[in-house]
Write a structure and sequence with these properties.
Length: about 400
């Protein structure tokens, strides 16, 4: 089996899946606040529950894939669950309907992501893992770019009425089905040794090395600042960006994300993943401060570009870092634990952000995120040593 082709097919699966997802994700916050009359606390709750569900399930799916020594069936099931959940947004008439669909969609993501990342890691060598994870994120984000372009064209063509949103939600199933076909027919299983400690499920993170554990601690602190992208989109709307341009401004974020993901991965291969991640944390602190204090209908475009640069620097590199720090037979579980930490923290992060927005101002959650991000960068340098 050509392992490089396996990684390529997985990239295309992510490309079409993100086309499907990003047709709807940039407009869900607007649909909630403008059509269904939800407030920011509700938006924060929905996004927090959705992302927490996804990340916590990644722990169990990662462990289970290690236990059975197979990844592809679990990955396929997760992608299928998400694909066929999204169109139900087309019949949503209340915010809790959106919550139910977002929950179901993120269940699918939670099932697939850890075994998929482990499959990518198993199909690559350590010396090129950062680059290959970066390439995967690049194709994933390129799909997001296509999805946002489609959404923007439909919003412009159909004047942004309630029916426009519902048509976009319904049509999102098409690229998802293409992704499922590629996954079922092209992606191959990579046989892996079953992990000895995966025979019985355990949350004993202490079984892993101290460097990995300290990294999870810093990650937890940082992710209390990581409320949903919905806050950034609604901040853009708050400062005067028109509805039809909301997907385009989100496209700017994705263009930069895709354009720098591979470069960031290569850089982490050369100068170390911790150094790259620390720079990313500091950058997010500055970006959040910009959204709080300098955002207007013009500057917010530049801020979204910097937000995309932050994601390019940190997303794939974090997964590659976790893959480096643990043994191959435990990699699915370790990646699941990484995603689970994100999930445990994302709900309170969104609830805090929504509370600060409603109780104080639109600037308050971004100031909070800025301070916590800078603290996290310092902790990463101080607590996480190089693996010996």
């Amino acid at each position: 089996m050509d392992k490089k082709k396996n990684v390529l097919w997985l990239r295309l699966v992510s490309f079409f899946t993100d086309t499907s997802s990003e047709m709807i994700f940039p407009i869900i916050p607007i649909f909630l606040t403008s059509i269904l009359n939800a407030n920011m606390a509700i938006v924060g709750l929905i996004e927090g529950v959705a992302e927490s569900t996804s990340a916590i399930l990644k722990l169990f799916s990662g462990w289970f894939s290690d236990k059975i020594g197979k990844k592809k069936p679990i990955v396929f099931g997760g992608y299928a669950f998400s694909t066929f959940a999204k169109p139900f947004l087309a019949i949503a008439t209340s915010w809790w309907h959106v919550l139910a669909v977002r929950f179901a969609d993120r269940v699918g993501k939670g099932i697939r992501d850890s075994p998929r990342d482990a499959l990518i890691a198993a199909s690559s060598s350590k010396k090129e893992r950062g680059r290959l994870f970066g390439l995967h994120r690049m194709l994933d984000t390129a799909g997001a770019m296509l999805g946002t372009i489609i959404a923007s064209i439909l919003l412009l063509a159909m004047t942004g009425k309630s029916s426009t949103f519902r048509w976009i939600f319904f049509l999102s199933v098409i690229p998802g089905i293409i992704a499922l076909w590629i996954l079922s027919s092209k992606v191959k299983e990579v046989k892996a040794k079953q992990a000895d400690n995966a025979k019985k499920f355990s949350l004993r993170i202490r079984d892993f090395n101290p460097v990995y554990r300290r990294f999870l601690l810093v990650l937890a602190v940082f992710n209390f600042a990581q409320f949903s992208y919905a806050f950034f989109i609604l901040r853009a709307r708050d400062v005067g960006v028109i509805l039809a341009l909301i997907p385009i401004i989100y496209l700017v974020y994705n263009v930069v994300y895709a354009g720098f993901a591979v470069t960031a991965g290569k850089m982490s291969d050369k100068i170390g993943r911790k150094n790259v991640l620390s720079a990313g944390y500091l950058l997010f602190g500055l970006v959040a401060l910009g959204f709080a204090l300098a955002a207007n209908s013009i500057s917010v475009w530049f801020l979204f570009a910097l937000y995309g640069l932050f994601m390019a620097i940190t997303d794939g590199v974090s997964r590659a870092y976790v893959s480096d720090l643990v043994k191959a037979e435990n990699r699915g579980f370790a990646l699941g634990a990484y995603h689970s930490i994100v999930g445990i923290t994302v709900l309170p992060a969104n609830l805090i952000g929504g509370f600060l927005w409603n109780a104080y101002s639109a600037q308050a959650p971004f100031i909070y995120a800025s301070v916590l991000s800078i603290v996290s960068a310092l902790l990463l340098f101080a607590l996480v040593e190089k693996k010996k």
